[in-house]
Amino acid sequence: MKAVVLDIEEKHAILLNQDGTFVRVENKEYEIGQSVEFRPRTMRFRYGLVACIALFVIVFGLGTFAYFDPYTYVSFDVNPSVEFTVNRFDRVIKVRVINEENEQSLDKAVFKDINHKRIDTAIKKTLEEVKESGYLSEESKVVIATSNPNKNKAQSLANRLEEVVSKEEREVAVETVCVDKNKLDDAREYGITPGKLTLIEKLKDALGNEEFDINDWTKKSVKEIVNATNEVKKNEKEKRIKPGDDPKNADDLEDEKEEVKEEKKDIKDAKKEEEKQEKEEEKKQEKEEKEREKQERKEEKEKQKQEKKEEKEKEKQEKKEEKEEKERQKQEEKEEKERQKQEEKEKKEERKRENKEEIKEKILKKAKGKNKEIK
User: Fold this and answer.
1) What pTM did the predictor assign?
2) Alpha carbon of 302 to those of 252, 289, 310: distances in Å?
3) Can you tell me the mean pLDDT for 118-124?
4) Strand pairing class (35-37; 72-77)
5) Contact at 8 Å (CB) between 168 and 131?
6) Among 6, 81, 149, 214, which is least packed, fewest CB within 10 Å?
7) Which backbone phi and psi does 25 adopt, to 5 degrees?
């Protein structure tokens, strides 16, 4: 079973298996992101998975989902074109060779081993494989495109990868471009990388032909597209040079036009970015307003719930007091009845005693009367 090294703890390493489980194993000089073969031992070993998962969440915070969540897209274009899906830790989680006709000539094992490596290492190994396969020469041009929701992150990564390529192949021209999600989606519709789409769009702008069909150039190599663009620019420059003109002046004029064009583009991009930020701010405010309203509704609901609870408690207390009052009255009535009963009993006893005394007196009187008669 394949596993990925996610963390190193001196003598131990945390591995993530293909089935999504975590295991803690002996560290055999592993590196984070390395893909290794792992053979599960017994089920009792899995009892430690909970601890491993807890440790992983504490260390990485975002957990497994963050590791496999696509965060940045990087495309590498020479011929063939390769697209990398990268997570927020700059680790490659997916590799895709765009040009199917060239895929057969590339070593698939190289791209398989690239998985879970840092994107810098992945670009370096891809460059080596493309060179060994005969697709890279001094006349070649490497185009690297990066796409990330954070524009600064995308630009920083593009600059870093440009340095990687320039360091490995000093004679090869490198062009980097940062693209947004819309450009990424458009490129996927054409079945190419955003870097290649950018080159084709530059050719379209150079030609100024509205009937230009992008699909006619999707199968072309980067070198062919760049050469076509350079040829168009060269022809345009030659048309502007009149007999007797200094070519340097034409070059200066061309440079000025390019600067003006770039300036207009920068202004347009800045305006677009400003509008984007305004929309994001509006969305943020709307979201905050919705959250506030939601919180107010929640608080109101809690308040009503509390009031109902207090009302019920009050009713319950009143019923309890009412019941206690009835019990008290009932007890008083009972005690009153007992008292009256006791008084009645005492009166009966008193009458009975008085009757006995009367009978006794009568007997004594009668006895005295008989004694007198006898005398």
Assistant:
1) 0.54
2) 72, 19, 12
3) 94
4) unpaired
5) no
6) 149
7) -130, 170
